[in-house]
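User: Can you recover a sequence for this backbone? Please restate the input before giving your answer.

Assistant: Of course. Working from this structure:
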C-alpha cells in the first residue's frame, strides 16, 4: 500500500511500554513494510488489508486535527493516491468541537482537484499533506507536457477523464505533432489555469522543483515540463525554486556502497542534467550556506542543506504554503515531505500526540538531530511524561555531553521509585536535571533516533538490508554495521 502510506505518512499507533515498543506494534510495522515493498498501490484494487491501513491513518490524523476528505474512491482523480485523501483543516484534539471555521470549503476544493488533475504528470495533482502553523505543505508531480497530455489516448483522454492507468511509456503521440503543438497554448492555458487556481486556493506561494532537468525527455519527446520553463510565464506570480536533487536511479549507488551516503556525489555532467540551482536571494542570505558549491556536496550534505532551505521557507512567511515536487512525485518528493514531517514532528509542532513510529527516511534521521534543523528556535518546555516516554525506549542511544540514556534512565528510576511512581515527577525536578534548551535538544534527538531504530528493526526483518556489493571481509559494513552496533542485531535472522 505504498501509495496510501506515502500520501498519509503518519504511522501505525504508538504502544510504548517501560521495556520498549510492544511486540504487537512491532509486528504491525513489519507487516506494513512487507506489504508496501511487494505491492503497488492502486486505488481501485483495494483489499481488506489496505482498508485497515487506511482506517488506521484516518484515526491517527483525528488525534490532532479536524479534517475533511477529498474523495478518490475508485481512483477517478488519481489512481495512485489514496481513496480517501485527507485535507487537514486545523489542529484540534477535540474533533467534535469546531473551534475554527476553515477558509477552504471541501466541495470547492474537490471541484478544483477534479479540474486540475490533467495539469500534472500521471494525474498527481497538488495535494496538501502537512499543516504547519495554518500553512499547507503540498506534494505533487511536475507539470504534464504535451507528450504527456496527448500521449495517453489522444484527445479522448483530455475530454473524457480517462484512466490514469492507460498511460504507458510505449504509447505513441499523434504523428502530426506540429498541428498538436500549435494548439498547445490554448490547452495549457486551460489545464494549467486550473492548477494555478488550486495552488492559490491553498494559499501556496512557494514551489520547490527537485528535477535535475528542465523537461523530462523520452524517445526524443518532451513528456513532462516544469513551472520554471513555462513559456507563457503562467507561474510568474509564484516564488519558484529550482533545487536539483538526484532521483531513485542514483540511489542504486547508495545501495551498492552498503547504504553509506557520506562521500557519495552525484555526477552533474550527464547529458540530461540541465536544471541549474536557482534560489531567490531572500532565502540564501540567512542560511550561511555556500550554494555555489552544491555540485561538490555528497548526498548527506546536499540533503541537509535542502532540508534547511525548506524549513527556512515555511518559517519565512506566516501566510503562504509550499509545494514540493520532482517528476512523478514518487521518490524525491516523499523523501523531502517525510523529512519535513519528521523534523517538525520532532519539534512537537505537527502530529503532537503521535509516538516515534514513522515509515520513511529512517537512516537519514541521524543527520538532522541538531537544533539547526529545528523549526522552533526558542527554548521549549518538555513535559515530564514525554521525557519518561522517550527514556524508557531509548536506553541504548548515546547523547552528546550528557553520557548515555542508560545513565539518565537510572537517575529517573531513582526519582520515580522514591516518589512513588512516574506521576510524582514534577516540573521542578525536571528543571533541576535539564535546562529548557537542553531538554528541547535532547528530546528532538531521542525522538528521531527512536524512529530510525524502530524502522530499521522492522525493515531488516522483512525487506532486508542486503547490499548489491558484498564486503570483501564478509563483515557488515556501512549502514548495516552502524545498525548492528546501535541496536545489537547481529543474528542471521535479523539482518540479511
Amino acid at each position: 500500500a505504498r501509495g496510501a502510506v506515502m500520501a498519509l505518512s503518519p504511522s501505525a499507533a504508538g504502544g510504548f511500554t517501560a521495556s520498549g515498543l510492544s511486540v504487537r506494534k512491532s509486528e504491525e510495522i513489519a507487516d506494513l513494510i512487507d506489504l508496501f515493498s511487494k505491492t503497488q498501490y492502486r486505488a481501485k484494487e483495494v483489499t481488506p488489508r489496505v482498508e485497515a491501513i487506511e482506517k488506521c491513518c484516518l484515526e491517527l490524523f483525528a488525534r490532532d486535527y479536524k479534517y475533511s476528505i477529498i474523495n478518490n474512491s475508485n481512483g477517478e482523480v488519481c489512481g495512485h493516491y489514496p481513496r480517501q485523501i485527507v485535507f487537514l483543516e486545523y489542529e484540534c484534539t477535540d474533533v467534535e468541537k469546531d473551534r475554527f471555521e476553515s477558509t477552504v470549503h471541501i466541495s470547492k476544493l474537490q471541484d478544483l482537484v477534479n479540474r486540475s488533475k490533467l495539469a500534472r504528470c500521471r494525474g498527481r495533482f497538488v495535494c496538501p499533506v502537512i499543516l504547519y502553523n495554518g500553512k499547507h505543505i503540498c506534494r505533487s508531480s511536475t507539470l504534464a507536457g504535451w507528450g504527456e497530455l496527448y500521449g495517453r489516448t489522444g484527445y479522448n483522454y483530455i475530454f473524457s477523464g480517462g484512466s490514469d492507468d492507460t498511460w504507458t511509456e510505449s504509447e505513441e503521440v499523434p504523428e502530426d505533432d506540429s498541428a498538436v503543438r500549435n494548439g498547445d497554448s490554448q490547452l495549457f492555458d486551460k489545464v494549467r489555469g486550473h492548477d494555478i487556481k488550486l495552488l492559490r486556493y491553498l494559499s501556496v506561494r512557494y514551489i520547490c522543483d527537485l528535477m535535475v532537468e528542465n523537461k523530462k525527455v523520452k524517445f526524443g519527446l518532451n513528456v513532462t515540463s516544469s513551472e520554471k520553463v513555462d513559456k507563457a510565464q503562467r507561474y510568474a506570480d509564484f516564488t519558484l525554486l529550482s533545487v536539483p536533487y538526484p532521483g531513485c536511479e542514483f540511489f542504486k549507488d547508495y545501495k551498492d556502497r552498503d547504504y553509506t551516503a557520506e562521500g557519495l556525489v552525484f555526477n552533474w555532467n550527464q547529458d540530461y542534467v540541465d536544471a541549474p540551482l536557482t534560489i531567490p536571494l531572500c532565502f540564501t542570505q540567512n542560511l550561511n550556506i555556500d550554494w555555489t558549491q552544491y555540485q561538490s556536496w555528497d548526498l548527506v550534505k546536499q540533503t541537509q542543506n535542502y532540508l534547511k532551505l525548506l524549513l527556512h521557507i515555511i518559517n519565512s512567511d506566516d501566510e503562504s504554503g509550499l509545494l514540493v515536487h520532482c517528476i512523478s512525485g514518487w521518490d524525491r518528493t516523499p523523501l523531502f515531505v517525510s523529512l519535513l514531517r519528521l523534523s517538525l514532528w520532532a519539534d512537537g509542532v505537527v502530529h503532537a500526540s503521535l509516538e516515534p513510529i514513522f515509515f520513511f527516511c529512517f537512516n537519514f534521521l541521524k543527520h538532522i538531530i541538531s537544533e539547526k534543523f529545528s523549526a522552533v528556535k526558542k527554548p521549549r518546555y518538555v513535559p515530564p511524561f514525554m521525557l519518561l516516554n522517550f527514556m524508557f525506549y531509548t536506553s541504548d542511544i548515546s547523547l552528546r555531553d550528557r553520557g548515555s540514556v542508560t545513565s539518565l534512565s537510572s537517575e529517573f528510576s531513582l526519582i520515580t521509585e522514591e516518589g512513588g511512581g512516574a506521576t510524582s515527577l514534577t516540573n521542578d525536578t525536571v528543571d533541576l536535571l535539564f535546562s529548557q534548551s537542553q531538554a528541547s535538544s535532547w528530546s528532538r534527538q531521542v525522538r528521531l533516533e527512536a524512529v530510525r531504530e524502530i524502522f530499521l528493526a522492522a525493515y531488516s526483518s522483512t525487506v532486508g538490508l542486503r547490499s548489491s556489493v558484498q564486503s570483501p571481509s564478509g563483515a557488515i559494513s556501512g549502514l548495516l554495521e552502524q545498525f548492528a552496533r546501535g541496536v545489537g542485531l547481529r543474528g542471521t535472522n535479523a539482518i540479511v
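That completes the design. Residues 112-157+189-373 form a domain with the Protein-Tyrosine Phosphatase; Chain A fold (CATH 3.90.190).
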